Amino acid sequence: MNQARILQGDYDEPLNAAGINLAKITGKALNGIHFDEAFSSPLSRSLDTIKILLEESGNASTPIHTDKRIQEVNVGDWTLCHLDDKSNPEYENIHQFFKDPFSFLDVPNGENVYDVMKRTQDFIKELASRNDDKTYLVGTHGFASRCLLNMFYENKRDFWHGHVPYNCCFNILKVEKNNISLIEEDVCYYDKDSIKDYYS
After folding, report:
1. What separation in angstroms does the CA of 178 have from each of 124, 130, 174?
2. Which CATH code for domain 19-194?
3. pTM as predicted
4. Where are the domains of the chain?
5. For the segment 78-89, what is each residue's pLDDT rounded down to a tens digit?
6. Who contacts 9 (Cβ-Cβ below 8 Å, separation ≥6)?
């Protein structure tokens, strides 16, 4: 659907062969890192990615929990719209929403950026409040991850922070005494020639 420029939102489109391949490559690159627990959006493309990452990195026995708070944005009536369909009366609104989510808050029967920021940031703050020495793997989606990470960005109005997160990229967070910091951004563990930016 990304390749076809069809808007998924929280529609449960399964992981395709390219996504499976990226997850396998990335999982192998993570070999040697022990994950104590994993969390995933309930959507299958996230959950299957997490399962592959754990298996390929030697963490097949790591428990996985699903949490709706890290599910992708619900785009309501726009779900499965084609992004290039100029005959769609919502075409301008859809593009305004994705160009600058802070400037368009009335997603018909869906969520706005503040809705998603609240739930994703609630999730990560709750996880950080455990204040333990565990390493967690968290699987989410492009829009949802930018909402979660917005709290760390210097320019919070620059929602996309340069680009839509690349498939299977990592943002690494460190927690010390309930203080969360972003220490690495949008890291890809696969060949840069395989990076696809479907939306810029």
Report:
1. 11, 8, 10
2. 3.40.50.1240
3. 0.94
4. 19-194
5. 999 999 999 999
6. 72, 73, 74, 75, 76, 78, 79, 110
